[in-house]
Amino acid sequence: MNVIVVAAECAPWSKTGGLGDVAGSLPKALARRGHRVMVVAPRYGNYAEPQDIGVRKRYKVDGQDIEVTYFQTYIDGVDFVFIESPLFRHIEGDIYGGSRLDILKRMMLFCKAAVEVPWYVPCGGVCYGDGNLVFIANDWHTALLPVYLKAYYRDNGLMEFTRSILVIHNIAHQGRGPVDDFLHVDLPGHYIDLFKLHDPVGGEHFNIFAAGLKAADRVVTVSHGYSWELKTSEGGWGLHNIIKENDWKFSGIVNGIDTKEWNPLFDVHLTSDGYTNYSLETLHTGKPQCKAALQKELGLPVQPDVPLIGFIGRLDQQKGVDLIAEAVPWMMDQNVQLVMLGTGRQDLEKMLRQFENQYHDKIRGWVGFSVKMAHRITAGSDILLMPSRFEPCGLNQLYAMMYGTVPVVHAVGGLRDTVQPFDPFHESGLGWTFDCAEASKLIHALGNCLWTYREYKNSWEGLQRRGMTQDLSWDHAAEKYEEVLVAAKYQW
């Protein structure tokens, strides 16, 4: 098939979270399965690889003609196309920032330009056209694309056989606004019914994700657990009834990971400063060396027998940072070391610094984000904490298991799907889970984890080895996506 993945971010050029990783990795796995694949993303900065191909187009956005320029490169079997426009310039550090209407205009322009890419952008000298074509749009930022495909083209006898899939990465962000926002999106008047949604608290409003869910031919979310949660009033964030009505076109597919970038044997961030690459065969020597290097780099006492616990993520309530904060006094009594990397709410950043000052020989807080440090914490830690209140898929627990780092997670969304609880009687499972976002539940799970780490070395090594021998690559996920592509194209 001809597949066009459309996303507001794409690693390594732009990334704020898991969506960027998906847009950078899934297309390569689909290409390996024989499909012709393109990624379309905004051009926020002066990227080295993509080149201006000389194509210019103008699109009307809120009554104003705006020119876009297309940049293209070909990497690992995938065409990467970047849309350059004045609306995307100078926001590289905050790609989702700005006023509500500023964001809406950017997304309108992006979707209008992306849906016409197969006609106007020659890749390898040949445009994709609409033959055997499926768009994969990602999150609310691109949820206008299935609507534009229908309103501009299919309703007018064009691109009749082109299909669209909408992927939900995080339902909490929906593109909401007052009903009058419909006047800005340049659609026939009768399309307003796709966007109208009644909220028990806020009343009737305009909702881009709601329209995309209705217009798309198939809907995917990033884990089986999250696909179930989205149909509940708590997990659906007001869209649960629409999702239940469209259940027939709904699938849950767990994300994969880039097993070149996230592989302890080839990790480029483990080649200096005392770190070392390691594999399943050298786990006994390599991982302790990385732990000692991490302790030394962060100024913690180098103590091989003290459990080192890591946290990597945004500092906000969703990620359960407050639960870790409640559990810190208990942890300090357990003789452990805690390393936390992240940025987010200012009060939580301040709290991180206070913990470091209070427990200087046991806690390190890295406020900000560093790709290198994320890799080194993943390699050097014994345990990874992920107490997220909700987590559509989660990638850090997958990275951790690849590195022989044992996860302790809240059993929600993709965390429940990917971390099977340790069973000491059958020596099975991959880590520890807890079933409620409470500090006491986290403490109970982490307590059992620490007990196993200290007293049952063979069981601990079994957990590490089972985690490291899983197939967490995108190839498995791509096979599942292929099934959805076929369903979108041929099953009606």
Automatic annotation (TrEMBL):
Protein keywords: Amyloplast, Chloroplast, Glycosyltransferase, Plastid, Starch biosynthesis, Transferase, Transit peptide
Name the UniProt record assigns to this protein: Starch synthase, chloroplastic/amyloplastic
The keyword NAD belongs to this UniProt entry's keyword annotation: no
Gene Ontology biological-process annotations: amylopectin biosynthetic process; starch biosynthetic process
Domain Glycosyl transferase family: 304-423
MF term (GO), any: alpha-1,4-glucan glucosyltransferase (UDP-glucose donor) activity
Domain Starch synthase catalytic: 2-244
Source organism: Salix udensis
Localization of this protein: Plastid, Chloroplast; Plastid, Amyloplast
Pathway assigned in UniProt: Glycan biosynthesis; starch biosynthesis
Family: Belongs to the glycosyltransferase 1 family. Bacterial/plant glycogen synthase subfamily.
Alphabetical list of CDD domains matching this protein: GT5_Glycogen_synthase_DULL1-like
Keyword Glycosyltransferase: yes
